[in-house]
Amino acid sequence: MAEAAAGRARSARIEQARQAEARRIARRSFLRVSFFAGLILSLGSSIAGLLAFFNLRNPTGFGAPVTVPPSLIPPPGADPVRITDGKFWLVNLEGSQGDVLGVGGTGGLLALYWKCPHLGCVVPWRADFNGAIVGYPGIIGWFRCPCHGSTYSRAGVRVFGPAPRSMDTFLIEVNNDGSITVNTRAITSGAADPPNPLRAVPYNA
Asked: How many CB atoms lie within 10 A of CB 21?
């Protein structure tokens, strides 16, 4: 009897040990699976972020090439046209007072990023603004930031206010059908050479 009881106790201890070991193995397997699942999710998120950062998903609008049809291109001397999806002003400097600082230039189209270089406010075109207020009497029509008063010529040249430079520009390509493609990925600082009026692209469509 005593031997039978001892045997049963030994069997119970062995079974308990076996169950405990099975629980440890299950716990390790769960932790291992959880680790690799988390690693895969983290890598997937990182790759998705990189794809988004480098614009590998064919975005449209700002951050991608934007095509402007001939109907939206301002004629010489007309007010600049706001291209909302590209976040820029399209300016035709042909036959206009676009170069108030005597930089020169032969006219043409210019795409001005509408973000003020000072603190990023959207800069509107003020067709009624008199340049006499900023030291250029007789010239009506300026870009003027509503936040802190930075003022820019039709070519985006800074003439007044706290902005550190002229308005930035985008690269323009003229297409065979008279439309243009503005590459809003290719931003040139308003502080770079050549100055804005010399960046205008000839347009004769």
From this structure: 10
Mind listing the pLDDT tens digit for each residue in 58-115?
Answer: 556 778 999 999 999 999 889 999 999 999 999 998 765 545 555 566 789 999 999 9
Tell me the whole-structure pTM to 2 decimals: 0.69
Nearest to 62, CA basis, from 39, 88, 92, 33: 88
Averaged confidence pLDDT in the chain: 83
What is the spatial order of strands in the sheet that 88-92 belongs to?
Answer: 65-68, 180-188, 169-174, 109-113, 88-92, 81-83
Q: Is 121 helix (H, G, I), strand (E, B) or coil?
A: coil
| The dihedral formed by the CA atoms of 31, 32, 38 and 44, expressed in degrees to the nearest 10 | -170
Distance (Å, rounded) from C-alpha 197 to C-alpha 155?
6
Q: Which two tokens stand for residue 151?
A: 């003022």
Amino acid identity of residue 39, one-letter, is L
Q: How far apart are CA 152 and CA 91, in angstroms?
A: 13
Structure tokens belonging to residue 138: 């007789």
* Sequence letter at residue 49: G
Where do we find the tokens 């069997």?
A: 11
- Cis upstream peptide for 194 (omega within 30°): yes
Count the Cβ atoms, other than its own, within 10 Å of residue 19.
10
Per-residue pLDDT, 57: 52
